[in-house]
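Duplicate of #3305? Posting structure anyway:
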């Protein structure tokens, strides 16, 4: 999500794997399925212009499209690539703690809040807290979201030859001294 060149980063992760090793990542799916972030960003948008992120630049929803990361994995030579969606929850003790966490740790929110004055920031805070209060239950705020998990495996060196032939060089544990 946040690498300037996700294809290059994925290729490097795959290169660093031992044969048979696995790579697993998770990304956020589209904003509409992640109200834990959209509540705050919609509140911010009532007071300032929130520019849409560069669709090809680093941002938290850059890899949201189904198959996006799987294609990167396959392009990096990984096999047996599988992806699936996982329901998640952001759980905080209170609506106020939700706001504190989002306003201090979500980079889009932090950047946008730097553009507003104190009174506007307080109106944004009140708006977000009012909306997130709808997710309060059992003494906690539980805001849903959806992440996508992706796994792939680096092929064993022997499986790249027809018939799984012998390796040209033994693995390090078998090498002669």
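Output from current build:
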């Amino acid at each position: 999500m946040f690498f300037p060149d996700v294809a290059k980063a994925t290729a490097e992760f795959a290169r660093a794997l031992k044969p048979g090793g696995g790579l697993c990542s998770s990304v956020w799916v589209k904003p509409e399925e992640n109200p834990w972030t959209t509540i705050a960003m919609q509140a911010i948008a009532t007071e300032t212009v929130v520019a849409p992120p560069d669709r090809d630049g680093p941002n938290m929803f850059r890899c949201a499209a189904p198959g996006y990361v799987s294609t990167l994995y396959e392009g990096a030579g990984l096999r047996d690539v599988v992806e699936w969606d996982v329901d998640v929850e952001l759980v905080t003790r209170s609506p106020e703690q939700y706001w504190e966490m989002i306003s201090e740790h979500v980079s889009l929110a932090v950047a946008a809040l730097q553009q507003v004055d104190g009174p506007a920031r307080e109106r944004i805070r009140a708006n977000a807290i009012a909306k997130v209060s709808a997710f309060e239950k059992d003494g906690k705020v539980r805001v849903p979201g959806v992440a996508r998990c992706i796994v792939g495996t680096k092929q064993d060196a022997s499986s790249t030859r027809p018939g799984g032939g012998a390796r040209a060089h033994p693995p390090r544990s078998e090498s002669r001294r």
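Confirmed duplicate; merging threads. The first strand starts at residue 22 and ends at 28. The CA atoms of residues 26 and 149 lie 4 Å apart.
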